[in-house]
Amino acid sequence: MKDIKAIKGKYYIHSLISEGEHEHQDFKFAITDAAKIAHSISAFANNDGGRLLIGVKDNGNIAGVRNEEDIYVIEQAAQMYCHPPQDVKMTAFSVEGGAMVLRAEIMRAERRPVFARDIDGKFRAYYRVKDENIVAPAIMVRAWQRKQADDGCIFSLSDAETALLRYLDEWGMTTVDDYMHGAHISRETAEEIIVRLCAMDVLEFVYTGSEFKVVRAE
């Protein structure tokens, strides 16, 4: 399959499958849609990286890679449907019954956001949350973009920013709405402050199970 020689990996692949699908792993029975695979690549790249196990059903059963075209579709998704293009490292493993499972590894992007082109032609940034790829919140995308644009200049904190950091030191996390109402500032101002502090790695976004909040960066 495109010069990829399968290596023995029965027990390794079963150990990965036993983890189930999670923030850094997704099962794919087959690869047929480059746009959908681009969602996964974008989501993993915008998080802390991850891997696709191709030839594995959602229930963890091994079906094996059925077509070498899967490799081409993954490459197409990474290079033509992602902006900027992403590198995907692919390794084939032979398992029982002569079946082959393909591991596609996606690294955390050095420059975020990584956008994926959807079937409507629009580019959207995705983020991996548990076992799902979701559209990244606009404020998170703005923070990533601001980080890339910042020139590393010296900064000073405003009273509103200082108050936010003190609140987080005491309460741990907050949302834009809570910060806006608590500080008696507009949504635009609250979002701008959060974007600025996230871009400077003072704050970071965390997913609480139902929504994104901001916390002090570690």
From TrEMBL:
<keyword id="KW-0067">ATP-binding</keyword>
<dbReference type="InterPro" id="IPR038461">
    <property type="entry name" value="Schlafen_AlbA_2_dom_sf"/>
</dbReference>
<protein>
    <submittedName>
        <fullName>ATP-binding protein</fullName>
    </submittedName>
</protein>
<dbReference type="GO" id="GO:0005524">
    <property type="term" value="F:ATP binding"/>
</dbReference>
<dbReference type="Pfam" id="PF04326">
    <property type="entry name" value="SLFN_AlbA_2"/>
</dbReference>
<dbReference type="InterPro" id="IPR007421">
    <property type="entry name" value="Schlafen_AlbA_2_dom"/>
</dbReference>
<feature type="domain" description="Schlafen AlbA-2">
    <location>
        <begin position="21"/>
        <end position="134"/>
    </location>
</feature>
<keyword id="KW-0547">Nucleotide-binding</keyword>
